[in-house]
Write a structure and sequence with these properties.
The complex is a heterotrimer. Chain B has 14 helices and no strands. Chain B is mainly alpha-helical. The chains are: A mainly alpha, B mainly alpha, C alpha+beta. The interface between A and B is large, with 101 and 96 residues.
Chain lengths: 305, 281, 450
């Protein structure tokens, strides 16, 4: 391979033409802010002047001080513990529910498939902030018809207590995203050639066996995809606790790492610490999602070649 | 029908119905509550009507503060519609290039784009704000539109789909016929990628429609707000002006309605393209 | 990457608090993407006779358009454009800080009293004395004017205050044969009686730092003081401890609820009478009217309970200013507008209609103008209660930088204490230490007082 062929040169030119518009904006809207956030996380503000008012304000290099401060903050760390616990419980539950619903809808026994599919998918059209306001009304004791009905059958339930509120948030997320994940799985099921099922059936497999031994292995890639997105989404959990916070005294300003970073930046006006926390958050998301891909095998690495 | 099949059918339908109740109950609550005053919102049983006056209350939502709600709605359509369209085209071009043109550094670029998904939006918003302010573009339509047209997930999807659905032989044939790369892409590539493009469009449309944080940081003029931001800004002042609670719930109902219809009607398209990527992933 | 420097010559000129140092620019540019600053906010200008200018004004209150429209119709040369920013979870202030940093703040904004010092920290507000603002001092209630005075500078024009008082359901109190409490001891006794009837007198909302500050204010606490070149923070002082002990006792005896106030569940309790009283403020009338319309005619307002019988110590909860940003291009005109908005009788009338609270202006309205919801209070001239309270607010209370963070810390600590059973005193101790370190972290000189 001595000379770059004409095809190669041509390829590079054409690829650049197609890629550049996206890359330019990607650079502007992703890379530049990330670089800036990293830069910010390594600096701090220094003030001079009497009372700190009216004097000069300078950004000085702080090394890893912001990271050290973030990692020394118990509440920030316990926020991580909380979302990990949340993910360990909620993600499997949601994925299992989505898988079961997808399999049921695609099974021969199902009726009114279009109606059910629409009903399950509908919550995805409700934005997170609105969904949280909505569920807020269904959680608050005294207003919630759910609590009222529970109390009438003698069950004194409090959705917003310290012990339950995390699972109340999990419910909102499950409600919103199960239908979406289900649809992803259904479309993968549809991609499986029908003959495969027929063959299995002729071999005498019943519906459950077909589901367990043929369908689930075949939709494995889609399951991996939904899991990875769920992991990332869970780590970035933010809107739900933010909206529920005023309703529940059990949610503090550092309930999730993302909420903690937001509080630092927006309430405390301390963007340097917030940037360090965001970088840590992204790192953990990176480690976990790639860790997950590795865990489920090499298939994830081979895609897109 | 055999007893076994009948049993399966009963079990299946029961399970599906239980799930449907779970997913629809909050929606039902929203429908009922949109007909209530603030007082009844807090004072009456949530799953049943109390002095329903849907026309009057929803009319109030639409006319409050000189009809600002309608404007927010139009803004949301603009951000989501134009943003998603532009995002789709950009992703298509980028995905096509990554799939069909081997060049050095291709995988590196692709991985960097994918890693973009990992960064929390809350962390990007403030730096973006400073950046746009630097260009004098904060608090404009552009400040929300431009970041919305970048969709790493869209590129990912388009690349996978183009790799599978656009045969190299077809491209070669077109090249031999003397067609330019741009013409091949716009005439052939885009057409073959349509299922994936519809999916990217819908995905990005919902993503922009639901985005709350970026407009919150970028916009200060409520005339530019999208609907989510407008509605939450109402709740921020509701303790002094309590009818805003009822407007928020009514407004939420109205905003969710078209999106829900859209979702339901366009389900077919979600299905077709959505996991073309994950088939291989 | 280029060197990054926030201070650059030739930017907006500002006076420092003590009139000494030269100004710092608010310009900012992304590292590597700019040239050290954004220069479009030029030095303050004088408007030429006949020149037309437009000022931007950030607020989040729905009713603000009306007085602004009135101003615009009267002042064709100085048009004011209102931009309504979202005020969810304090987002409006985050936006203002960001705008200052980015070098494009509005000309004016509504800022609540406790938050004013936070803006001095990033040199965000114009010292009004540089454009002759001190001459308006006499138009406003003394202590409210004083809230925005730091060093020799004046940093905002007061708009409204929120003198505190106690709202009670007179019908229920009568039925249960309870007198509205005049002292905190009587309040506790009333709480006990009410509890026996199956209701709760109040909620100790753990996340409401604002109101807790009001209690402390009434008890004689002084959380912040600026002396010499350093701040003194004294959240864990004697009066605040007294307040904390008092409420801890109520909570431990289960005489008060601990749900958040001014939220769904609380409104429901107001409607049903499950909570028949509220330690609120003058602006609370609209809130009760709107959220518990079924209780019309049953409410009355009485003064805050006192620590010692016959005393008259009052406190403030809420209240706003109109501030001019340091980046304002036409500061004189901005100041004129701010003063007009808060002193002109017609403007005040519109603000009162908008539910802004008790005007900070001395004249231009009658107390009875504020009795907008008289029927709801059974015909009581309830605003008189708050006017009198306003006259006896301890005027030496001062806010310091970072009050938002303080509220958040208090809320987090109280929330934790409620679940762990920790003492409220330990909350104060913890928050005191955190606040001192927060301020140090901001590069300020801080001493621990109390």
């Amino acid at each position: 391979m001595r000379r770059p062929t004409r095809t190669e040169a041509r390829n590079a030119r054409a690829a650049a033409g197609f890629l550049l518009p996206f890359l330019a904006l990607f650079l502007l809207c992703f890379i530049a802010p990330i670089v800036y956030a990293i830069w910010q996380s390594l600096h701090k503000t220094e003030r001079t002047g009497p009372l700190g008012l009216g004097g000069a304000e300078r950004e000085v290099f702080a090394g890893l001080a912001n990271y050290a401060q973030a990692l020394a903050d118990d509440r920030f760390l316990s926020g991580f513990g909380r979302v990990l616990l949340f993910g360990a419980v909620q993600i499997p539950l949601m994925i299992i529910l989505a898988t079961v619903l997808a399999l049921l809808l695609e099974s021969a026994s199902a009726r009114w498939v279009t109606f059910f599919r629409s009903a399950f998918f509908l919550p995805y059209g409700v934005p997170g902030v609105i969904a949280s306001i909505l569920w807020g009304f269904l959680y608050v004791p005294g207003i919630s018809p759910l609590v009222k009905m529970a109390q009438e059958v003698g069950w004194d339930v409090d959705f917003l207590s310290r012990g339950t509120v995390l699972w109340s948030i999990a419910n909102i997320v499950t409600w919103q995203f199960t239908g979406y994940n289900m649809l992803v799985l259904i479309s993968q099921l549809k991609a499986v050639p029908q003959e495969l099922y027929e063959a299995a059936r002729i071999d005498g497999a019943n519906a459950r066996q077909v589901a367990l031994h043929i369908k689930i292995p075949l939709i494995r890639p889609a399951l991996v995809l939904t899991c990875v997105f769920s992991i990332i989404g869970t780590l970035q959990l933010f809107a739900e606790p933010m909206v529920l916070r005023p309703l529940a005294s059990s949610i503090d300003s550092g309930y999730t790492p993302n909420l903690h970073a937001y509080s630092e930046a927006f309430v405390g006006n301390n963007q340097h610490l917030a940037a360090a926390e965001a970088v840590l958050l992204a790192l953990v998301a990176c480690v976990l999602s790639f860790g997950f891909l590795r865990l489920v095998g090499q298939r994830g690495k081979e895609d897109g070649r | 029908m055999t007893p076994v099949r009948l049993r399966y059918r009963i079990i299946t339908c029961t399970l599906l119905t239980v799930a449907a109740v779970y997913f629809l109950v909050p929606v039902y609550w929203l429908v009922v509550s949109a007909t209530k005053s603030s007082g009844d919102l807090f004072g009456s049983f949530g799953f049943w009507f109390a002095n329903p006056r849907p026309i009057e209350y929803l009319g109030d939502v639409l006319t409050y503060d000189n009809g600002i709600y309608v404007r927010w709605f139009a803004n949301s359509l603009l951000y989501a519609g134009i943003g998603a369209l532009a995002a789709t085209l950009l992703s298509a071009a980028a995905g096509y290039a990554l799939a069909k043109f081997p060049f050095p550094g291709r995988e590196g670029i692709f991985n960097v784009i994918l890693a973009g998904v990992l960064i929390p939006g809350t962390a990007l918003a403030l730096p973006l704000y400073f950046l746009f302010s630097g260009f004098g573009m904060s608090n404009t339509y552009w400040s929300v539109l431009i970041p919305s047209v970048v969709s790493p997930f869209g590129v990912y999807l388009c690349r996978i789909y183009a790799a599978a659905a656009v045969p190299d032989s077809l491209l070669e044939a077109a090249r031999i016929d003397g067609a330019g790369e741009w013409r091949i892409f716009s005439g052939l590539g885009l057409r073959l990628m349509i299922p994936a493009l519809v999916t990217v469009f819908l995905f990005q449309f919902v993503h922009i429609w639901n985005n709350y944080f970026l407009p919150l940081v970028m916009l200060s003029d409520s005339d530019l707000y999208p609907i989510q931001l407008g509605l939450t800004s109402w709740t921020g002042y509701a303790d002094r002006q309590p009818e805003l609670y009822q407007y928020t719930v009514g407004g939420a109902f109205l905003s969710v309605l078209p999106l829900m219809i859209l979702m339901t009607v366009l389900q077919r398209y979600w299905r077709t393209g959505l996991t073309e990527g994950s088939v291989k992933a | 990457m280029r060197t990054y420097d926030t201070s650059f010559p030739g930017g907006a000129r500002r006076r420092s608090v003590l009139g000494g140092a030269a100004a710092v620019a608010a310009g900012f540019a992304l590292a590597g993407c700019g040239d050290g600053g954004d220069d479009k906010k030029a030095a303050p200008k004088e408007r030429k006779e006949g020149q037309k200018v437009t000022l931007t004004f950030w607020s989040w209150v729905p009713g603000i358009d009306k007085p602004v429209d009135l101003w615009n119709s009267k002042h064709p040369e100085v048009q004011v454009k209102v931009e309504k920013v979202s005020a969810v979870n304090g987002a409006q202030y985050a936006k203002m800080h960001a705008a200052i940093k980015a070098g494009n703040p509005p000309d004016l904004a509504q800022i609540e009293f406790p938050v004013v010092p936070s803006f001095l920290l990033d040199n965000g507000l114009l010292d009004l004395t540089t454009v002759g603002g001190e001459r308006y001092k006499g138009k406003f209630v003394g202590w409210q004017w004083q809230q925005s005075v730091f060093g020799k500078g004046v940093y905002a024009v007061p708009q409204a205050s929120g003198p505190m008082g106690l709202f009670v359901r007179q019908d229920l109190f009568d039925k249960w044969d309870i007198e509205p409490p005049a002292t905190w001891d009587e309040y506790e006794a009333a709480a006990r009686k009410i509890r026996k009837k199956g209701a709760w007198i109040e909620t100790f909302a753990p996340t409401n730092g604002n109101r807790f500050a009001g209690y402390a204010w009434q008890a004689g606490a002084k959380w912040y003081a600026a002396e010499g070149d350093s701040w003194t923070v004294a959240i864990d002082d004697e009066p605040t401890r007294k307040v904390a002990d008092y409420w801890e006792a109520l909570v431990k005896q289960k005489l008060v609820k601990t749900i958040p106030d001014r939220q769904n569940a609380w409104y429901k309790d107001l409607q049903t009478g499950a909570i028949p009283a509220w330690l609120g403020a003058s602006w609370g009338d609209a809130l009760l009217v709107g959220n518990a319309p079924g209780t019309k005619g049953k409410w009355r307002a009485v003064p805050l309970p006192q620590w010692t019988k016959g005393a008259n110590a009052q406190a403030n909860w809420g209240g706003s200013t109109t501030a001019v940003f340091a980046g304002a291009t036409y500061p004189k005109d901005a100041l004129d507008f701010a003063v007009w908005l808060n002193t002109d009788p017609e403007a005040i009338k519109l603000l009162i209609e908008g539910g802004y609270g008790f005007p900070s202006a001395k004249t231009g309205y009658e107390t009875s103008d504020l009795d907008v919801h008289k029927d709801f209070f059974g015909g009581q001239a309830y605003s008189e209660v708050f006017r009198k309270a306003g006259d006896h607010v301890d005027t030496s209370w001062q806010w310091g930088p970072g009050v938002d963070t303080l509220y958040q810390r208090l809320g987090d600590a109280f929330t934790e204490a409620l679940s762990s059973g920790e003492s409220f005193r330990s909350v104060l101790k913890k928050v005191q230490a955190q606040t001192v370190s927060d301020l140090k972290g901001k590069g300020l000189k801080v001493e621990s007082g109390g």
